[in-house]
Design goal:
3 strands; 62% helix; alpha+beta
């Protein structure tokens, strides 16, 4: 939402179709982000539930698209109108910003806390997810 206000402040004057497009992008991006966060937390929770933790090796393959986009992304941006590029960027930021509230919604619904514990080294050898119940537990 901060990006939307910054975009409106920078642009000075937006016409009605542009405002409708930006409102539609944000209206679609936020529920998708909440849903993705909820489903990601559910997946982590389902893997952790038998033992209370889940450990896996980290994946580093996602560095490749980030490096390629940062090096060659400026050339692709010039092929599309600025309105579409800004709407896509705002949509991506909206999805990414809404993932954390989706995870918090899942934690609240299940009554547990999800924790991420990483190896303290720079190149981690493993990533551990933990699930702990919220509130006092009984000895049953």
């Amino acid at each position: 939402m901060v990006g939307l206000f910054a975009l409106l402040a920078i642009s000075g004057r937006l016409e009605a179709p542009q405002l409708i497009l930006l409102a539609a992008v944000m209206g679609l991006a936020l529920p998708i982000g909440v849903l993705l966060g909820f489903l990601a937390a559910r997946r982590i929770w389902s893997k952790c539930i038998p033992a209370g933790f889940y450990r896996k090796k980290p994946t580093y393959w996602w560095f490749i698209p980030i490096i390629l986009l940062s090096v060659f992304g400026f050339r692709v941006v010039g092929l599309f109108p600025l309105l579409f590029v800004s709407a896509a960027t705002l949509g991506e930021l909206g999805v990414l910003a809404a993932i954390a509230p989706g995870m918090a919604l899942f934690e609240r619904r299940t009554g547990c806390h999800l924790f991420l514990v990483g190896d303290p080294s720079f190149w981690t050898r493993w990533v551990e997810y933990r699930v702990e119940p919220r509130g006092p537990t009984t000895g049953r």
